[in-house]
Amino acid sequence: MKKLNELTLKEAVEGLKSKAFSSYDLTKACLTQIDASDCELKAFVTVLKEEALEQARTADKTINDMGVHALEQHSLLGVPYACKDNFSTQGIKTTASSKMLENYFPPFESTVTTKLKKAGAVLLGKTNMDAFAHGSSTETSDFFTTKNPHDKTRSPGGSSGGSACAVASNMCIFAIGSETAGSLRGPASWCGIVGFKPTYGRVSRYGLVAMASSTDSPGSLTKTVYDGAYVLKVLAGKDPLDATTSLTLPDDYSIRGLESLKSLKIGKPKSYFKIDLEPAVRKQAENFTDLLKNLGAEIVEMNLLSPKYSIATYTILQRSEVSSNLARLDGIRYGNDRTSFGAEAKNRMMLGAYTLSAGYYDEYYAKAQKVRTLIVDDFRKAFSRVDLIVAPSMPCTALKIGESQKSPIFGELMDVLAEPSSIAGLPAISLPFGVDEKNLPIGMQFIGPQFSEKKIIGVASCVEELCQH
Amino acid sequence: MDSHKVSVDDVRSIAKLVKLELTDAEIEKFRQTIPQTLDVIDILKELDTSKTLPTSSVTGLSNVFAGDSVEATLSQKLALSNAKEISRGLFVTKAVFDRP
Which of the following is catalytic: A183, A217, A310, A461? Predict the structure, then answer.
């Protein structure tokens, strides 16, 4: 029998509804697992033990008083979760894993954590990440490196590495992360869990420590596709505090998986398979498309702009936005002074300032914005022919800790398969699909047009169900 | 592919733009890594964008305004709660002018 901390979100909610266990028991089980594992895995920057148990007691009281209705009104009531440390939590230290913000206690709450709080979720703690989300390995954290639960000498991926590690090692029921380009899909892939990046503008960025504002997207790291959909239902929607959130009403994401993929066309971009993929990843990607075919989908080989252009475009756009966003950190209103920036933040600000500076703006920033148009149009054309696009999530499985130091654009190279869709603001999900010869998880992704989350969930659930049986 | 050259003075002037004080070792590192990165992004020159308009936002939204209403905001105490130095209820900033 599963331990309580090993439950999926769906199982946890069902158990709380039927009073098979209390939120206190569930939360205690997660905290016990944190006590046992986190000294080695180092997923958490802050653990809120007493606060979480107190929240759990309150949730239990509400469930006792109101019965099952309590969970109908508050869909995450009593469910313990972990949150990436770049979401502002009022009165709770929010560091973005940076020395700069090591003692920052936000005076306000992010919209994402406000919504989770209203839904009754219990916050276990704040998770480690690449400092300011600058990286794809969680090694650029100014505090410590998070380990991959499948092999502790390897990276969990990043930048939401702490959250992914916490889910994969059952230290929480689900976790929140954010993705600018690959920061949910990457760690989900390397840790063998589900990472769901919604359409840009589907979930509010208010109170999220900004990295690249034109692509930052909050999302979830969960044990199943159903769980990711369940969390998205809580998070999605227009927020007056974030002008880029969409007026399009969220769909009902709590759907069953499709029974078959008949009548679906799924694009297989040749250029994504031309890049340097690890043999095991390539083989699994082929197996995955065969599986989709067996489920009734029509696989359409298609031409998409090579992701190598997205590496360059993303590098320019993201670093330019970083240099602008981090300019606000003056150490006067909050945070330390600018001498406390880590190497990676400096690296990104320097290049960003260069690509934005007079004389280079047109050559780099303006050019990248134009290529962004080409990328957006390229996807638009693709989605007039197919429903979704399939590809591996990462070019390789989890790398050894230390590998990230070998290139000044390591993150951009690792996130190559996520960058095009992030630049275009598209939704995508990464789900685990088998392992390599070292027993390390491999992830496959579905990418859809803007606001196609419902379709992505339907297809991903169908595949997941088949893989489990 | 072009090989980019970035001088020590270039690095210093970029650092000034982003208000970073760099050590000599860091200056040397950036003198090498900035051109490496520029070499990679040169690939965009392969794409013809002479007739392409730039995209700064993918949402399609424009002129999004907040409602014309008064909303609760942070109290002075909360707004100052993370400041290293405050004086008479205000942030202490660096001086802009030198005193004579």
Answer: A183
B86 lies in a domain?
A: no
* Mean pLDDT of the A164-178 span: 98
What is the domain extent for residue B12? 8-45
* Ordered alpha helix ranges (H), A48-160: 49-66, 69-73, 111-118
Listed by number, the residues of chain A in 136-195 with a beta carbon closer than 8 Å to a beta carbon of chain B are none
For residue range B58-86, what is the model confidence (pLDDT) as tens digits? 999 999 988 889 888 999 999 999 999 99
pLDDT top residue among A263 and A219: A219
* Arithmetic mean of pLDDT over chain A: 96
Query: What are the tens digits of pLDDT across the range A181-218?
Result: 999 999 999 999 999 999 999 999 999 999 999 999 99
Q: Give the mean model confidence (pLDDT) for residues A368-396.
A: 98
Q: Quick check: B83 and A341 CB within 8 A?
A: no
Cβ neighbours of A414 in B, within 8 Å: none
Give domain status of residue B82, yes or no.
Answer: no
Query: What total number of domains does chain A contain?
Result: 1
Residue A468 has pLDDT above 80, yes or no: no
How distant is the Cα of A37 from the closest Cα of chain B, in angstroms? 33
Residue B56 CB burial class (10 angstroms; 0-12, 13-18, ≥19): exposed
Tokens 């075919």 found at: A293
For residue B1, the model assigns a pLDDT of 44
Residues 318-337 of A with CB under 8 A from B: 323, 326-327, 331-335
Minimal CA–CA distance to B17: which of A320, A37, A153? A320
Q: What is the ipTM score, two decimals?
A: 0.94
Q: Spell out a b/e string for A331-367, using b for 16 or more CB atoms within 10 Å of the CB, else e.
A: bbbbbbebebbbebbbbbbbbbbbbbbeebeebbbbb
Residue of A107, A366, A376 with shortest CB distance to B58? A376
Q: Is A159 known to be catalytic?
A: yes
Instruction: Select the residue of A243, A352, A409 nearest B40 (Cβ to Cβ).
Output: A409
Q: Does A360 touch chain B (CB under 8 A)?
A: no
A316 — contact with chain B (CB < 8 Å)? Answer: yes
CB contact under 8 A, A347 and B74: no
Share above pLDDT 90 across residues of chain A, in percent, rounded to a whole number? 93
Of residues A214, A351, A374, nearest to B47 (C-beta): A374
Dihedral (C-alpha) A321, A324, A325, A326: value to the nearest 10 degrees? 120
R_g over Cα of chain B:
23
Nearest CA to A464 out of A447, A440, A446 is that of: A446
Contact A357 B14 (CB under 8 A): yes
A312 touches chain B (CB under 8 A): yes
CATH at A307: 3.90.1300.10
Q: Could you read off the pLDDT of A115-168 as tens digits, one per residue?
A: 999 999 999 999 999 999 999 999 999 999 999 999 999 999 999 999 999 999
CA distance A385 to A398: 33
CB < 8 Å to B11, chain A: 350
pLDDT confidence of B2, banded at 50, 70, 90? low
CA distance A445 to A420: 13
Is the CB of residue B90 less than 8 Å away from at least one CB of chain A?
no
* pTM across the whole model: 0.97
Q: Over pLDDT 70: what percentage of chain A?
A: 100
Q: How many domains does chain B have?
A: 1
Residue A457 structural domain: 1-468
